[in-house]
Design a protein that fits this description.
Helices cover about 0% and strands about 50% of the residues. It is mainly β. The strands form 2 sheets. Strands 2, 4, 5, 6, 9, 10 and 11 form a 7-stranded mixed β-sheet that branches.
């Protein structure tokens, strides 16, 4: 079992920045690929970014490329999402997720473990 707890969400004006964190416990963190997903009201949960266990490989959805950066600190068992130049359309509940694999996965169904989510609201 892997337990995930997100933090760092909040209310920010358009153009601002936030850094989300996801603290993991329960297993060897570096053995798990990690991902960030988000779900806006009335919409399905969608992929945002993913990173391999070593941190060497990453993937982003097109709408956040150049604005968001996913990273991890395996010594601290923590995943991060640095979000810059935020837009109102980034408003959503953000979830971190984990899967035991060497790959970088972008599909929601591939992930086995999920956090409870953290709300990000971007005002215009």
């Amino acid at each position: 079992q892997v337990q995930l707890v997100e933090s760092g969400g909040g209310l920010v004006q358009a153009g601002g920045s936030l850094r989300l964190s996801c603290a993991a416990s329960g297993r060897t963190f570096s053995n798990y690929a990690m991902g960030w997903f988000r779900q806006a009201p009335g919409k399905e949960r969608e992929f945002v970014a993913a990173i391999s266990g070593t941190g060497a490989s990453t993937s982003y959805t097109d709408s956040v490329k150049g604005r968001f950066t996913i990273s991890r600190d395996n010594a601290k068992n923590t995943l991060y999402l640095q979000m810059n130049s935020l837009k109102p359309e980034d408003t959503a509940v953000y979830y971190c997720a984990a899967v035991y694999t060497r790959l970088v996965l972008t599909t929601r169904g591939a992930y086995d473990y999920w956090g409870q989510g953290t709300q990000v609201t971007v005002s215009s």
